[in-house]
Amino acid sequence: MHDALMNFLLRAPMGLVQMALDGSIERINSMAEYLLLPWAPRGRQNNLFVALTESAPQLRALVAAFEPGEGMVCESLRVAGGDAPTGAALFLYVSIYKENPGTLIATLSDGVFDPTLLPQAARRRSLGNELRQALAANQLFVQYQPVVGLGQGGTALDRGAGVEALVRWNHRLLGAVSPLEFIGVAEECGLSGALGDFVLTTACRQFAQWQKELGVRAPRSIAVNASRGQILETRFVDSVGDVLHSYKMSPDQLQVEVNESLTVQDTGVQERLRELRALGVIVALDNFGGGHSSLTGLHLLPVDVLKIHRSFISQSVSNAHFRLLIEVTVRIAKSLRLGVAAEGIETEPQLAMARQLGCAQGQGFFFSEAISSSNIVQWLTLAC
Fold first, then answer.
1. Which helix H or strand E contains 326, and what residues bound it?
2. What integer pLDDT is reported at residue 7 of this predicted model?
3. Which of 384, 380, 344, 348 is nearest to 362 (CA)?
4. Within 13 Å of residue 143, how many CA atoms lie on the same side as its CB?
5. Which domain holds residue 292?
6. Which of 35, 118, 264, 285 is most buried when burial is the number of CB atoms within 10 A of its CB?
7. Residue 53 per-residue DSSP state
8. In 80-109, which positions are buried (b, 16+ CB within 10 angstroms) versus exposed (e)?
């Protein structure tokens, strides 16, 4: 089994089980063992079908009747029973996915039934299953939001400073699914690495194409977001290097953005970011000010750029407190030789304030929303 999936099986917050087609358990994480205990009080956890033979005898038949080489066998089955805690009804939610050629991955969750959470849990399970299939079928796509050089002292805006790559999913039934939702689902389902690899490869391929077609008018850098699951994968830094080599990109043309709270709290993530910087890649601290910000500890973080949270920018025009916070942040960042970008610029007064306070770059709907690669070309050719 792939190392990343094995690590996920061991650490996942829900219960995951890898098993053979006859239900024999090959790998199981501790949460899955815990969830199965009420249904297998005598320790019958060598075979999932046997453990659930009294409460869900149909599982074995469902797998046997499933003909495709891979796909969703059982999207969501609620199994009642077990030794319920006092005052609570105990349920086990089971979903089974078949991988080619013959491995089953079962998800076990929601040991105590709370009817108010059922619709949300069911949606997330369904999205996780369909996201796996969407990745395999190349149904996701990437859009690009311009990053603009703000200039100082009345100088013109620099439209070619860069772009940020943002993944999108247009679900066949649900329509546009918010990245805030499906990226979280990807983390839970062990798909963050595959999702991140897709965005990185797609974005760098497109960047190389712009360089070839547009020359000096092309964006000078491209930014991609990285999740904790992706960053901590064993080959993450090597994979970034491989992609850069494949598309003949200089490492400093790529900016990897990580969430502020993630970087501040996780020493493992910090170590990987140091490896990225050693490679020459630019590392940006995203959403600075929206979480566990500490200006006093900023010098300890392995980052090159601060991206100030949109909530600071949106209130900078009307609130002197937020203007002061931005001003202090910019001063400290410059003393540490860090770049500063303003996120979420939506109005001309916000743009003027960001420039006045010393932000070198900015992005937001005032310039452009995330758009297709072809529309980026058109946007770049507009007069400043």
1. helix 320-335
2. 47
3. 344
4. 11
5. 141-380
6. 285
7. T
8. eebeeeeeeebbbbbbbbbeeeebbbbbbb
Query: Are 145 and 255 found together in one domain?
Result: yes
> How far apart are the two ends of the chain, measured CA to CA in Å?
52
Cα separation, 210 vs 84, whole angstroms: 60
One domain for residues 179 and 237 = yes
| Same-domain status, 156 and 54 | no
User: Is 90 a residue whose pLDDT tops 90?
Assistant: no
Q: How many domains does the chain have?
A: 2
Residues 25-52 have a mean pLDDT of 76
- Pairing state between β 305-308 and 339-342: parallel
The tokens 């910090």 sit on which residue? Answer: 270
111 contacts: CB under 8 Å, gap ≥ 6? 34, 35, 38, 90, 91, 92
The answer to whether position 136 is within a domain reads no
Q: What is the mean pLDDT of residues 98-107?
A: 78
CATH number for the domain spanning 108: value is 3.30.450.20
**Which of the pair, 194 or 274, is modelled with greater confidence?**
274
- C-beta atoms surrounding 235 within 10 Å: 13
Q: What is the pTM of this model?
A: 0.69
Same domain, yes or no: 229 and 332: yes
Crossing angle for the helix pair 192-214 and 118-136, to the nearest 10 degrees: 50
CA atoms within 13 A on the CB side of 67: 0
What the block records as the tokens of 118 is 């059922």
Residue type, 248: K
Quote the pLDDT of residue 170: 83
Give dist(CA 352, CA 94) in Å, integer.
54
User: Structure tokens of 115?
Assistant: 């009817």
Stretch 223-246: mean pLDDT, rounded?
92
Whether residue 195 is found in the same domain as residue 54: no
Per-residue pLDDT tens digits for 39-48: 776 555 788 8
Instruction: Say yes or no: 308 and 194 in one domain.
Output: yes
More confidently predicted of 92 and 292: 92
